[in-house]
Write a structure and sequence with these properties.
By secondary structure, this protein is an alpha/beta fold. The chain has one domain: 3-Layer(aba) Sandwich (Alkaline Phosphatase, subunit A), CATH 3.40.720. The strands form 3 sheets. Strands 2, 3, 7, 8, 10, 11, 12, 13 and 14 form a 9-stranded mixed beta sheet that branches. A 3-stranded antiparallel beta sheet has the order 4-6-5. Strands 1-9 form a two-stranded antiparallel ribbon. Helix 11 runs parallel beside helix 12. The N and C termini lie far apart (51 Å).
């Protein structure tokens, strides 16, 4: 069998990439130690989370009309947050964090990436922290943050079957670890990959459903890839990652970044998003449970995605690649119990290109303000070096 790394998948097939970007298999985690006492955790939600479903603007008069089968709100079992937004039922386990002021959200945010709506391009821009793909920057913004701090050293870590996180790639010393998960392909599956890679890109919406293979029981999908995906999801991969992250952060590590995948919901979103949101909720609850007491009080968790999804539900009860999205923030250091951001509205005239939630703030600005509060880095370094060309704007006061 041939062992395939994440980078192999990125270069092998742009068409299949839509599925692989959201695959539950590809979940590396990266660590670094730094000379401050706070903890910063950055989670990349690969596959483009639908923020309009995760935190539902049920108070917007146009919301229900855009989503015939996906409309949420308290009347459909969602948890009311503030009289305008509600929380998807799959995130219900996070309700105590919200009530305790340890969970918040930023709506209508996005990187500067626009229009082509490619998962991998979007993820590259997100993790590089630049304003374009041609920014001339080859390292990740978390690594550039570490480069600005003297005395940073690599923590003890392990690399098992997966590549590093681009967000932490760069000159600063960073150690890597990944759970025991590899992907093996039979000759038949390799041939299938070859055929798919020559197909029309329009097929990628259907291929995205491959990320949900673990929830399916289809005899024709009995390849080794299917079996590995099923075993990976059933094995609680996300909790293995959270367990290892918490252990290191209780000790010397101060920065951690990892991925949660499976957010590409072109079809049957109700099922797919429920599973992905459940894993996110599990992860955050587990991190709070393990980072107890003073460590949790000094912890900020940021979950970011490459872009949002269309405001309108599509014909297969899913949503397509969009623009404005949602940022999730948790931790004892977070001023939660609030949905941050300037709501742009969902009237057709308010939508970006008539189809997407209009971004009203750069997601990098929120990340920069959180980073500044957690590390004490100078604002000019954040705007010039860590996020080149960023205007952080006014401080939203996310960190206590």
């Amino acid at each position: 069998m041939t062992e395939l790394s994440r980078r192999f998948f990125l270069t092998r097939s742009a068409v299949l990439g839509c599925s692989l970007a959201a695959s539950p298999l590809l979940t590396p985690v990266t660590f670094a130690a730094a000379p401050w006492d706070t903890r910063l955790i950055v989670i990349i939600l690969r596959g483009a989370m639908d923020g309009l479903d995760a935190v539902q603007p049920y108070g917007d008069p146009n919301y229900a009309g855009l989503r015939s089968s996906l409309a949420g709100g308290p009347q459909n079992g969602a948890l009311d947050l503030d009289g305008f937004f509600s929380l998807h039922p799959a995130l219900g386990a996070l309700a105590p964090m919200w009530k305790a002021g340890e969970l918040g959200f930023a709506h209508a945010v996005s990187t500067p990436y626009r229009d082509k709506r490619s998962h991998f391009d979007g993820q590259d821009v997100l993790e590089a922290g630049t304003d374009t793909l041609q920014g001339g920057v080859r390292d990740g913004w978390l690594n550039r943050m570490l480069q600005e701090v003297p005395g940073v050293k690599a923590d003890t870590a392990y690399a098992i079957g997966a590549g590093e996180m681009p967000i932490l790639k760069g000159k600063a010393p960073v150690a890597n670890w990944a759970p025991e998960a590899t992907l093996s392909l039979s000759p038949q599956a390799e041939r299938l990959l070859g055929i798919i890679s020559e197909s029309d890109p329009a097929m990628h919406a259907a291929l995205a459903e491959a990320a949900l293979l673990s929830a399916m029981d289809t005899p024709s999908m009995s390849s080794n890839m299917t079996r590995d995906m099923q075993n990976n999801r059933m094995g609680g991969q996300h909790l293995k990652i959270a367990e290892f992250a918490a252990k290191r952060l209780r000790e010397d590590a101060r920065v951690a970044s990892f991925s949660l995948n499976g957010w590409d919901t072109h079809r049957f979103q109700e099922r797919g998003l429920k599973a992905a949101l459940g894993e996110l909720a599990d992860t955050l609850v587990y991190l709070k449970q393990e980072l107890t007491g003073p460590v949790w009080k000094k912890t900020a968790i940021v979950a970011m995605t490459e872009f949002g999804r269309t405001a309108r539900e599509n014909g297969t009860k899913g949503t397509d690649h969009g623009t404005g999205g949602l940022m999730v923030m948790a931790g004892g250091a977070i001023r939660g119990g609030k949905v941050y951001g300037d709501w742009p509205g969902l009237d057709t005239s308010d939508l970006y290109e008539g189809r997407d939630l209009l971004p009203t703030r750069d997601v990098r600005a929120h990340a920069a303000w959180i980073m500044q509060a957690m590390t004490g880095l100078d604002q000019s370094a954040l705007e010039r070096v860590i996020f080149p060309g960023l205007d952080m704007g006014s401080n939203p006061g996310i960190v206590l």
